[in-house]
């Protein structure tokens, strides 16, 4: 028992603030608003945030290794567009179409992530520059393949498979939660996880410790791309379509925000996967509540921005003391 | 009247006193040495006097007048470099007090003045070169030039010679004496007791934040200094020489070149042998070790390990073959300060603690606890971050990490740099034990006394080549020096 308590404390040590903030926010909103505490509303929030939430899990690894990935939102759009287009290859077989869409989404995501990974890990270009470039490239390719419009599918199986619910929890939300558990273990209890933090903490030291730093960085971008592809597949199923201009727009910023709020150090070296999930939920609840209070959608970005800045401020204050 | 005086100077952190009521005075025209173990309060004292931190209580007087905070009259050369890597040497020397004409930077004056200061140090450094292109000892020279170019009366130097070679140290001492003889004062902090005795007029010993004694340096022998620093007798710095006879050849290096630093090096290293490597800064010793450890590209030549030719393209291959390298730059390439003792120890050998891809935390913690006990690492809590450890304990952690891969070859590069006396003795014992257990050891050091005390055979390098091997009766500082600077062929 004591061990469990100790482990739990360790787990939360880096990011205690976000859990407290989440708990307070949940309590205040539940008490003050009956619509908010409606289980259906909570389930909706979880589903809404799951698309950028899944991306945020990959972003946690990228940032923990000292990088940044600005291209995930555009990559989502590209993977989504190609995935739905690929379904035309197997007309008449909904199941095969679904498999094609899934494989294409993950494949394109992995490829897009691998390109980032090679440029950062092997060519050693600044990740900000690399992913700023590919962000533009992936979005433009998505627009090109979709003629700057919407691609859609009439496959009913796709929609039902990705919007099924278990005990009110939808598939995307379930995927996000299961992946959080999985990646928490990966970050904390595998060689890869520790190497990621070592590279983010000090790349030179990591290199001298015989860690293949380039390969580690490559894998973080590959993972981020893969998860962007998965997110694209789930998002495509929700509306049976993907907008080449709007899908995944600013998801990279939401993901980065969630990671930072969750207690992962912006400079790398220290990471919390469950913290990222808490950050994702926190941002989702904030925008949900703002909706309920009837605050203009246009102002929500301001509130979100403030939440991010305050979270980082608290993080750095704590580090100083 | 003393030029600088402190009265009851105290600095506490959270009720822990790093400095307790230190009353010390320095006369003009003298050099005061400050010695003590790591954590004894020397650097805290220096930071208080230079105004980098505020003392909790007590007074600092300059020529009888109280000083608060930083003043140009008291300058310091910090232990860690305080240089802006992207700026040029001249820009760094004049950082914060740039001369200007009509509102524009006066680069000409900056360069000329910098050149003059560097020339006094006989340092071959271009004032227009970016600091990032300099070697560590070059950077140290820039720090020193920067301090001397200010019109200060009191100069505090914290371990200025750790990365200087004997020749550079000699030049530094000459300049220090010149500065002192103009009626100024120097406070000199160092672990190198022989140097302290050489340059200082008086020597103050600190222990656990308290000033233990102040004596004329003639009256204090290094053995007595060491005794006062640790509070007990250190009868022998070095463990007794080993009776073990070296075994089979483990490492064989032939005409190795890793340009530009290593040009042509050949040597053999037997199991159980401890070969010293001497040389001036820039002789290519670190680069040689890095080339063997797969950290640097080898241009030509061969490396044989237990008779088999190897060529490592990555450090991981070298580690897999059983080669450990303890890097000379603990902060820059050695340890992760934010990682725990356990994570630092198992960083390289992590694969040993993974079962089916999952990290076996309890096995790793068990191993870390064993090292902590064996090496007497403090604190004993293996989850403590490395930044909370003293330099000596950090170094023990780094040694433990190298050991944890089960090496057959262990290359130590400046293993006792910035390490206090007690930990230094312990590290010597570990190295000796390791060699006696049959591991082939290489000891790279700029500390001649250390090499002579530990090794029965020393390879001297000069400009990327082997200048010679010294053993037996020839093992003297003079002989090593001749070979290192190339006076005698």
From TrEMBL, chain A:
Instruction: Write out the annotated subcellular location.
Output: Cell membrane
Q: Which InterPro entries match?
A: ABC_transp_permease (IPR001851)
Broad class of the protein's primary localization: membrane
Q: What is a GO molecular function of this protein? A: transmembrane transporter activity
Q: Where are the transmembrane segments?
A: 12-32, 53-86, 98-121, 128-146, 166-186, 220-237, 299-316
Entry keyword set: Cell membrane, Membrane, Transmembrane, Transmembrane helix
* Membrane topology term: Multi-pass membrane protein
A GO term from the CC aspect: plasma membrane
CDD domains registered for this protein in UniProt: TM_PBP1_transp_AraH_like (cd06579)
Q: Per its UniProt record, what Pfam families does this chain match?
A: BPD_transp_2
This one is known as: Monosaccharide ABC transporter membrane protein (CUT2 family)
Per the UniProt record, the source organism is: Victivallis vadensis
From TrEMBL, chain B:
Give the UniProt keywords, A-Z. ATP-binding, Nucleotide-binding, Repeat, Transport
Presence of the UniProt keyword Transport in the record: yes
Cite the GO molecular-function annotations of the record: ATP binding; ATP hydrolysis activity
* UniProt keyword Cytoplasm present: no
* Domain of life the protein comes from: Bacteria
A Pfam family hit: ABC_tran
Q: Which SUPFAM superfamilies match?
A: P-loop containing nucleoside triphosphate hydrolases (SSF52540)
Q: Which CDD domains match?
A: ABC_Carb_Monos_I (cd03216), ABC_Carb_Monos_II (cd03215)
Name of protein: Monosaccharide ABC transporter ATP-binding protein (CUT2 family)
Source species, please? Victivallis vadensis
């Amino acid at each position: 028992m004591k061990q469990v308590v100790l482990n739990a404390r360790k787990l939360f040590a880096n990011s205690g603030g976000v859990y407290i903030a989440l708990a307070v926010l949940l309590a205040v909103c539940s008490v003050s608003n009956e619509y908010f505490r409606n289980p259906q509303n909570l389930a909706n929030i979880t589903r809404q945030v799951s698309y950028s939430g899944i991306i945020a899990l990959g972003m946690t690894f990228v940032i923990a290794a000292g990088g940044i990935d600005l291209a995930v939102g555009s990559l989502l759009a590209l993977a989504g567009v190609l995935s739905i287009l690929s379904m035309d290859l197997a007309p008449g077989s909904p199941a095969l179409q679904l498999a094609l869409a899934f494989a294409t989404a993950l494949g394109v995501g992995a490829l897009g992530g691998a390109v980032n990974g090679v440029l950062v890990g092997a060519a050693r270009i600044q990740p900000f520059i690399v992913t700023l470039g590919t962000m533009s490239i992936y979005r433009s390719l998505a627009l090109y393949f979709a003629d700057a419009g919407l691609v859609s599918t009439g496959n009913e199986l796709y929609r039902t498979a990705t919007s099924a619910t278990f005990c009110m929890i939808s598939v995307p939300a379930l995927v996000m939660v299961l992946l959080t558990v999985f990646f928490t273990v990966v970050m904390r209890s595998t060689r890869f996880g520790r190497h990621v933090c070592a590279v983010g903490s000090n790349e030179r030291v990591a290199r001298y410790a015989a860690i293949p730093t380039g390969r580690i960085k490559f894998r973080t971008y590959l993972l981020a791309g893969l998860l962007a592809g998965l997110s694209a597949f789930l998002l495509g199923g929700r509306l049976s379509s993907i907008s080449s201009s709007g899908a995944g727009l600013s998801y990279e910023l939401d993901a980065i925000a969630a990671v930072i709020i969750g207690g992962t150090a912006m400079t790398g070296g220290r990471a919390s996967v469950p913290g990222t999930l808490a950050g994702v939920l926190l941002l989702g609840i904030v925008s949900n509540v703002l909706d309920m209070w009837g605050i203009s959608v246009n102002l929500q970005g301001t509130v979100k921005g403030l939440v991010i800045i305050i979270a980082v401020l608290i993080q750095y204050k704590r580090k100083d003391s | 009247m003393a030029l600088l005086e402190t009265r009851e100077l105290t600095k506490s952190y959270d009720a822990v006193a790093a400095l307790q009521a230190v009353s010390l005075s320095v006369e003009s025209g003298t050099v005061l040495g400050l010695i003590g173990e790591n954590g004894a309060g020397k650097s805290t004292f220096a930071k208080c006097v230079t105004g980098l931190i505020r003392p909790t209580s007590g007074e600092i007087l300059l020529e009888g007048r109280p000083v608060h905070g930083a003043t140009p009259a008291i300058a310091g050369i910090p232990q860690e470099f305080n240089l802006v890597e992207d700026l040029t040497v001249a820009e760094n020397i004049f950082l914060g007090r740039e001369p200007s004409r009509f509102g524009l930077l006066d680069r000409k004056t900056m360069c000329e003045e910098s050149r003059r200061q560097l020339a006094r140090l006989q340092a071959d450094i271009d004032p227009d070169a970016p600091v990032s292109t300099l070697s560590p000892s070059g950077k140290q020279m820039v720090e020193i030039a920067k301090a001397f170019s200010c019109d200060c009366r009191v100069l505090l130097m914290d371990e200025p010679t750790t990365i200087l070679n004997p020749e550079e140290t000699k030049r530094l001492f000459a300049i220090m004496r010149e500065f002192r003889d103009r009626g100024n004062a120097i406070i000199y902090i160092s672990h190198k007791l022989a140097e302290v005795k050489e340059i200082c007029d008086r020597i103050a010993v600190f222990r656990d934040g308290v000033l233990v004694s102040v004596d004329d340096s003639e009256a204090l022998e290094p053995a007595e200094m060491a005794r006062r620093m640790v509070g007990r007798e250190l009868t022998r710095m070095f463990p007794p020489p080993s009776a073990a006879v070296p075994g089979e050849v483990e490492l064989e290096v032939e005409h190795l070149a890793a340009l530009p630093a290593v040009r042509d090096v050949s040597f053999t290293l037997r199991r159980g042998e401890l070969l010293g490597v001497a040389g001036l800064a820039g002789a290519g010793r670190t680069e040689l070790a890095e080339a063997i450890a797969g950290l640097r590209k080898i241009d030509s030549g061969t490396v044989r390990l237990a008779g088999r030719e190897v060529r490592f393209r990555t450090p991981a291959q070298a580690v897999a073959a059983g080669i450990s390298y303890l890097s000379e730059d603990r902060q820059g390439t050695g340890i992760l300060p934010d990682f725990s003792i356990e994570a630092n120890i198992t960083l390289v050998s992590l694969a040993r603690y993974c079962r089916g891809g999952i990290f076996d935390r309890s096995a790793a913690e068990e191993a870390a606890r064993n090292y902590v006990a064996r090496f007497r690492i403090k604190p004993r809590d293996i989850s403590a971050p490395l930044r909370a450890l003293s330099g000596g304990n950090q170094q023990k952690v780094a040694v433990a990490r190298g050991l944890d891969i089960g090496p057959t070859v262990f290359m130590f590069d400046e293993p006792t740099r910035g390490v206090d006396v007690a930990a230094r003795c312990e590290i010597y014992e570990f190295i000796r034990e390791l060699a006696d257990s049959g591991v082939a050891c290489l000891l790279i050091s700029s500390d001649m006394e250390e090499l002579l005390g530990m090794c029965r055979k020393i390879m001297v390098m000069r400009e990327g080549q082997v200048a010679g091997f010294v053993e037996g009766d020839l093992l003297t500082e003079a002989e090593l020096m001749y070979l290192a600077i190339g006076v005698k062929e």
